[in-house]
DNA sequence: CTAATTGAAAACCTTTTGGTTAAATATTGG
DNA sequence: CCAATATTTAACCAAAAGGTTTTCAATTAG
């Protein structure tokens, strides 16, 4: 589906960068669904939703089981693991930075702004 | 910078969906850098790299400190937190699915394919 | 067999993305 | 003042994204 790790990350992050696709994934977290079922909540044509599903499929996040004329889609969350791992490297940074914010708010509450 | 949570996620995931931008963030994890320094490793014009930095900036992942003619960029990892949280909801699924794969491989090793 | 349903494919359109080169702006150093 | 440096802006381009409508293909139901 995707060549190297970097392309896999590209595809996963790109797939997640759209609210419709994230909503489809949320829906699939509650169980499989056909293309029509998945498309129903959106104010867009079935064709458009179907394209979103294909983007998810190409990123490896959705598997499709064709039975007769209905295509049932299943969540495959595994490719998200790589994205999570990538983000985890930065967790230390945002923790530090959130701590910094906390300290700043604390300082403001005590009337100490840290300024000179 | 970004309106609601969904748009924030859009911007963050979109920003991360490009290998050049991920490399810039990795570089910034080792410490701040000027636009030129950040652009140097890439086989693209300074202007192109500068645009990537702007994408990161608009996603809130980079802050810029202008001193004279040099712009020093700093990592701000905090917006990644939302992306991590979003992914975390799916962690249970990929764990389950990786377990499934493990079980399958285990079964193959013992000569039990699970088929009937 | 025929009609309805499910979904993809094709053709098209507009906006965004990722890149280019050339020009403008601001700052620094001699 | 003048030249070099750091960076952005402007104008442009090709390709990708995200949408549309129309058409086609396969399957199911009556």
UniProtKB/TrEMBL annotation, chains A, B:
Chain ranges of the HTH arsR-type domain: 1-95
A Pfam short name: HTH_20
Keyword line: DNA-binding
Keyword tRNA-binding included in the entry's annotation: no
GO terms assigned for molecular function: DNA binding; DNA-binding transcription factor activity
DNA-binding listed as a keyword: yes
InterPro entries: ArsR-like_HTH, HTH_ArsR_DNA-bd_dom, WH-like_DNA-bd_sf, WH_DNA-bd_sf
NCBIfam families the UniProt entry points to: HTH_metalloreg
Descriptive protein name: DNA-binding transcriptional ArsR family regulator
Organism in which the protein naturally occurs: Microbulbifer rhizosphaerae
